[in-house]
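Pinned message: reference record for 60S ribosomal protein L23
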Amino acid sequence: MIEEVDKDKLARITMILWSLWWRRNQKCWNDKIPTIFDVIRRARDSHQEWLKAKLRHTMSDHGNTTSVNYCWSKPSAGKLKCNVDTAYYKEDNVYCVGMCIRDENGKFVQAYTKRMQGTPTIVEAEAIGLKETLRWLWHNYRTDTDIEVEMDCLQVVQAIHSTNNNNTELGSMISMCRKLLSLNKNCKVSYISSSKSDSS
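Predicted structure (tokens):
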């Protein structure tokens, strides 16, 4: 049966099991009981770190997607950089996307935020955030200026890079992002570690 599970799902299952074991050890050795949210977040973060390591060794620059950056840096002369992030407030049934554009000197150019209602998964919310960013850039920066869009969700960046398609909600968002990138060819999407994405 396990042979029928694709590698990505198997990796997720492995990270969840490992995170559950970590929770058990916290109870046994530290008399602490991490919440289920802590377990899921730890599994998600570990999975993304694993994907980052895998991407670094197996993927190269392709089309509109670059692979991995480890710290924020100013864009090249004549270019812009747009950092995007999504915040998820499950208790309030709300998630928000924020984006900030800086120029070659690292100076602030423009920012945009959008608040949405719903309960998507964290990765789906990140994909929706990227879609909203690309749509906003298409309407406001339809020029020859190159724009690099950076985000800290490696799974979304990897999905855009992949040629695979699926009929899930996430797959639908990824397809929309690809379409927007094909229309706005001066944009590229890259991954930046969340601990390094502060451009201030």
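Pinned by admin. Summary line: The mean pLDDT is 81.
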